[in-house]
Amino acid sequence: MDSERTEISELGEFGLINHLSKHVKTTNSSTLKGIGDDAAVIDIGNDEAQLISTDMLVEGVHFDLAYLPLKYLGYKAVSVNVSDICAMNGIAEQILISLAVSNRFPVEALEELYEGINLACSNYKVDLVGGDTTSSLSGLVINITVIGRAKKNEVVYRSGAQTHDLIVVTGDLGGAYMGLQILEREKKIFKENPNIQPDLDGHDYILQRQMKPEARIDVIKFLKELNVQPTSMIDISDGLASELMHICTQSSKGCHIYDEKIPIDAQTSIAAIDFELDPSTCALNGGEDYELLFTIRQGDYDKIKGNPHMTVIGHITDSLDGMYFIDKQGSAIELKAQGWQHFKS
Ligand code: ADP
Ligand code: MG
Q1: Ligand 1 near 237 CB (within 6 A)
Q2: Pocket test for ligand 1, best of 16, 18, 35, 82 (most atoms within 8 A of CB)
Q3: DSSP state of 230
Q4: What is the pLDDT of residue 344?
Q5: Residue whose C-alpha is closest to residue 181's, from 9, 64, 74, 81
Q6: In what order do the strands lie in the sheet with 232-235?
Q7: Stretch 307-327: mean pLDDT
Q8: Which numbered atom of ligand 1 lies nearest the CA of 39?
Q9: Rounded to 5 degrees, what are φ and ψ at 335?
Q10: pTM of the predicted structure, to 2 decimals
Q11: SS3 call for 129
């Protein structure tokens, strides 16, 4: 028997996916894009492409039912999947849901979960068309597969960014992470003293960012209306820094983004400061905002200028230049996957 043992932690999530998919080859000509983007892209004839993605949420890893009601969990599970179709510039149309449920959940609890799922399906105009149900020995696992559609020549990949393109983010960042910090803090206080009521006042926006994220199907519609075809795109599930690195690595480019340009809501900043965190660090490294990060040609700038949903935060550079975050003092800090390090000039 092979005596070698490599810990998964040595590779990390992305390293593990790369390692396992190293020898995967696609053989069907209909497979336009396999592993490596927000969704797989399948040629379905005419000018159309089918987009398929799947995401799993595991109790205790991705959610904690102590503070996330099942209805919200259902909504969020659909949102995060629809978001991956948006990230390809497509429209989500169907989902399949697989559940592994422990018998500690009564039927009523699962009805609540489905209330959230149904609400999201109705908001996103997505049909629930199947799934699978099984028992689990520990907790709840939800896996959703989403199917979407786009014109083949309108699909946007992570790999299309060009030098001088502008880097754009939608909405604001860091809110979902700060919402989670608030929920974790109140849970801890409640555990220590169940008589103390949770203090969630003034945090409604960031709690909603954490508990009920919205996939930006509105932005995909705006981009079509404005006649803007992004050159590259990804959704922000793991924090701005990590997603920007995916775009830059897959496009073989570098970037400069500017601290002062990063959109951060006042509630996020106030909470971050309260927790002695830098708001920009929360935007760069906090996850689950499910906003879109994309690049556009400079010539398209006038089309999105002044749009309240989109902010230009920097530009793409030549690959040799590296990936940099320019702080408010003008110092260039090299972006790292998990956090960032000071650039020694
Ligand atoms: P996202 O954050 O957009 O959901 P992931 O980081 O989960 O994307 O996945 C990146 C890519 O790796 C995707 O193309 C996904 O389909 C693929 N992938 C993830 N896990 C596996 C796996 N176990 N086997 C094969 N492909 C995988
Ligand atoms: Mg994604």
Answers
A1: yes
A2: 35
A3: -
A4: 32
A5: 64
A6: 232-235, 292-296, 166-170, 310-317, 254-258, 323-326, 332-335, 340-342
A7: 95
A8: 14
A9: -75, 135
A10: 0.94
A11: strand
